[in-house]
Design a protein that fits this description.
Blueprint lengths: L11 E5 L6 E5 L7 H18 L7 H23 L4 E2 L2 E2 L16 E2 L1 H14 L2 H18 L4 H4 L9 E2 L2 E2 L7 H5 L5 H9 L1 H10 L7 H21 L7 E2 H10 L4 H6 L17 H7 L14
Antiparallel strand pairs: 1-2, 3-4, 5-8, 6-7
Helix pairs in contact: 1-2, 1-9, 2-3, 2-9, 3-10, 4-10, 7-8
C-alpha cells in the first residue's frame, strides 16, 4: 500500500507486466512542469524500487548503495548538461572551478540516504582520531547554525563544515544539491555572499542569480524520485534534512538512528530542515508544480 502526502496525493504506482510478471514504478501524478524532469523522477524511483525491493526488507547497505548511485547519476547528467551551457565571448559560460567556494556558505538540504552515505564514507576513510576531530568540528558548526533560517545561513560566517581551504573534503559523496549547483558569473557569487548590501538585495529579490537552470532542475528531479520512492513504496520518512544537523546527529547521536529509520521511525526529526518546502522562489528554481490547496484532491 502506498502512502499519501499532506495533500492526499499518491504520485507512484507499482505496475506489473502481465506477460513477464516484472514490475516497474510509474509516476501517476506529475511533480514538475517539464516532462523531462518527471521522467528523471520516475527513473530514480525505479532505481530505488529495483535496489530495495528485491530483499525482504531494505538494508542500510542497500540504502547507501542507492544514494551513491543517485550521486553518480546526478554528476553524469549535470556534466553533460553543463557542456551545453550558454557560451559568452567564445568561452564556456559556467564560471565554477576548483577553489571557488562562494556556494559553500549556506544551508544544504539532504535526504536520509545521502546523509547515511556521507557518514559511511567518513567512517571508512578516516582514522578514529580524525573522525572524532571532525565530529567535534561539526558539533561546533551545528551549535552556531542551529535554528537559523536559510537566509540567515547564507553568510560568510557560516561555511559548510566540510569546507577545507576552499575545497570540498567530501567531494566524492557531496550532496545531490551540490552536484547541480553552478554559476555563470563567479564575481556575482562573491559579491552577493560577501558584500552585505548585495547579499540583502539578493535575499530580498529571490533565488537563482545567473545560473544554468537545467543541472539544478535535474538534481531536484532525481531527489524527488528518491523521496517519493522511499516514502510512498517503502514508507520511510524522507522529509528533507539539513546537512550539518544530520551529520551531527549521525556522528554524535545513538548508533541505531539509521536502523530505527529503516524500521519506520522518525529518528532524523531533530535534523529536519528549518525552512518548509512551499517557498515560491524555491519552487520556481526547481521547476516543481505548486501543491494544491490543503484538503483538495486532484484528479488521478
Amino acid at each position: 500500500m502506498t502512502r499519501r502526502d499532506a495533500h492526499d496525493r499518491v504520485h507512484l504506482a507499482v505496475v506489473r507486466d502481465a506477460a513477464t510478471g516484472g514490475a516497474r514504478v510509474s509516476l501517476e501524478t506529475p511533480v514538475f512542469a517539464e516532462s523531462w524532469q518527471d521522467e528523471l523522477t520516475a527513473a530514480a524511483a525505479n532505481t530505488a524500487y529495483a535496489l530495495l525491493g528485491t530483499a525482504p526488507a531494505p538494508t542500510l547497505e542497500r540504502v547507501v548503495e542507492l544514494a551513491r548511485n543517485a550521486m553518480a547519476a546526478t554528476s553524469r547528467l549535470a556534466e553533460g548538461l553543463l557542456a551545453r551551457a550558454p557560451q559568452e565571448g567564445g568561452a564556456a559560460g559556467v564560471a565554477c572551478h576548483a577553489g571557488c567556494d562562494h556556494c559553500c556558505y549556506q544551508s544544504v538540504g539532504v535526504t536520509p540516504p545521502e546523509a547515511l552515505a556521507i557518514v559511511a564514507h567518513l567512517r571508512s576513510s578516516l582514522s578514529v582520531a580524525a573522525l572524532a576531530e571532525l565530529a567535534a568540528h561539526i558539533a561546533a558548526r551545528h551549535g552556531a547554525t542551529r535554528g537559523l533560517s536559510a537566509a540567515e545561513r547564507f553568510s560568510p560566517d557560516h561555511p559548510c563544515p566540510f569546507l577545507r581551504s576552499g575545497q570540498c573534503s567530501i567531494y566524492e559523496v557531496r550532496p545531490l544539491a551540490c552536484r547541480g549547483m553552478n554559476s555563470l558569473d563567479a564575481g556575482e557569487c562573491a559579491r552577493r555572499l560577501r558584500e552585505p548590501e548585495a547579499r540583502a538585495t539578493f535575499l530580498a529579490e529571490g533565488r537563482g542569480g545567473h545560473s544554468f537552470m537545467e543541472p539544478i532542475r535535474a538534481f531536484h528531479a532525481i531527489s524527488a524520485g528518491l523521496q517519493l520512492g522511499l516514502s510512498e513504496i517503502f514508507h520511510l520518512d524522507m522529509r528533507p534534512l539539513e546537512l550539518t544537523a544530520a551529520m551531527h546527529l549521525l556522528l554524535d547521536g545513538p548508533e541505531t538512528i539509521g536502523s530505527d529509520w529503516l524500521h519506520g521511525e522518525r529518528s532524523f526529526e531533530s535534523a529536519r530542515s528549518a525552512d518548509g518546502g512551499n517557498d515560491p522562489g524555491l519552487r520556481e528554481l526547481s521547476g516543481a508544480l505548486p501543491a494544491p490547496p490543503a484538503g483538495e484532491r486532484p484528479d488521478r
